Amino acid sequence: MTFVTPGHAHSSSTLPPVRIRSIKTTPLLGESPKGGWTAEIKPEDSIHAIVAVHTDAGITGYGSAFTDGRLVEAGVKVLEPLFANENALEPERVTEKLHQNTFWMGRGGTLTHTISAIDIALWDILGKVTGMPVGRLLGGTYRRRVQPYCSLLMEEPAQMRDVVAQYRDKGFRAFKIGWGPFGRRNDAKLDEAIVRAAREAAGDENQLLVDAGASDALWPNGLKWAMRTAEMLKDYQIGWFEEALKPDAIDDFCDLRRASPVPIAGGEVLTRRQSFIPWLSRGAFDIVQPDVTKVGGISEQRRIAWMASDFGVKYIGHGWNTALGVAADLQMAAAFPDADLVEFIGGSPYVDGILAEPFVLDTEGYLTIPDAPGLGVELDREKVARYAADASKLFI
């Protein structure tokens, strides 16, 4: 089979099919970052999994899912009769087939998360075969670099100041602080002290975002807390207030968005495009944050982003995942005009420690969007093996 080189791409309709031979997955374990959850993540917990789609052409695509790897392994087994021998050059059709034929098993859970990783991998294959980056395949290149915001856990004020300063020294110019003690101790003065410390460390010239993390188990606060907190945040030039309310409280989100002096963001726990319709049509968000490794993959993410644009809602992907998730978000940022930020976990080995060439900030704190074929990144077999005992099957 003959494949094209970058700059000499052809329509996939003129290419012979590239058949899915097998799909392999492995959890990442041993260095899972803390999430600030009430039931805190332990290093040995599985919260992310890598998926490899192997084809009869010897081309492999990679994706990741934000869920327990054991669920992804089970999901792949369930989906196998549907993807076996399918054409890997048709990611939207193939993944929609997977969605449509499994909805009755539960739309939005394990299978949706698994399909997310498969879809990302299929786009990676399509890009590798056509010689184009995924962003161009999605319709265009609005930007060649994008600003990452460093996603950090909230800490006690003195430690919060030190942590933000540490990542500012590494070159980041945008920061998001979230979860931890914020909103969980019934102490408004502590909440403000944390934000003040982060703002002082970030500097007035840099972006600061706040994530309450109200999708945490047994979140204790409601609408009045969120409104009071939003008023406090405006004094610190906060770019958005994320997950300020329980994730199903759509009426409260609508009320908060109308009253809040700072933009309201959310949507990371929603999956499939259909679940976003009431949130967008009712005006619950200023910024919508689907997660490409949970929501259904790139195919689903871009439909949500287009829909958000039609409702005047900004799209910024949620990206608390892996280097493959970051790569997918970077390609999406290339393809959508208002996606001017990507999330980047501060200090996660699953972001910093699995690529052959890790992401590097430029002097202005931006990431270059890879223009190599597919996702534009390459996994390092030996690095992945540090966090996945059976990593070899990803590289067959």
Automatic annotation (TrEMBL):
Q: Which UniProt keywords apply?
A: Magnesium, Metal-binding
Q: Name one GO molecular function term.
A: hydro-lyase activity
Q: What Pfam families does the entry give?
A: MR_MLE_C, MR_MLE_N
Domain named Mandelate racemase/muconate lactonizing enzyme C-terminal: which ranges?
Answer: 157-263
Q: Its Gene Ontology biological processes?
A: amino acid catabolic process; carbohydrate catabolic process
Q: Which SMART domains match?
A: MR_MLE
Q: Which domain of life is it from?
A: Bacteria
Q: Which cofactor does it need?
A: Mg(2+)
What is this protein's name?
Answer: Mandelate racemase/muconate lactonizing enzyme family protein
* Annotated source species: Microvirga alba
